[in-house]
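Q: Hi! First time doing this. I have a protein sequence and I read that you can turn it into a structure. Is that right? Here it is:
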Amino acid sequence: MFKIRSISVLLLSLCMIYSFKSSIISNKDLAGIWVFSKQTASYYEYTKSRSFKKDEPGFEFKTNGKFIIRQNSSWCGTPPIQFENYKGNWKFTSDSTIHIIHKYWGGTREQELLIIGLNETTLRLKITSTNNH
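A: Yes, that's right. Below is the predicted 3D structure, encoded as structure tokens:
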């Protein structure tokens, strides 16, 4: 009886450890190009892609902390919108929050992004703060 209980506790512990580790996001999980797919009232959704789309915003997270954001190249949001790639940097500030800093048409922008969902094909982000310099 003691052996069965010990094995059960061990298996339960391993399952808990595995499920905890699988929820931790690493640089490799986030690395790649993410193209905008939709916006809801509570988050922005991006789809993993091999390259940026000509007429869509997106991000490229590199494992070394470098970052490229594809966004509107001017203050005007009236179609047709022209997109441009801007360089920047990113880092995790917690296990689910990213700090990004990058150039944009008006100067430099810093943002905090909360990851509310991530799998192999989909990234969901909520912007928690934005500062333009």
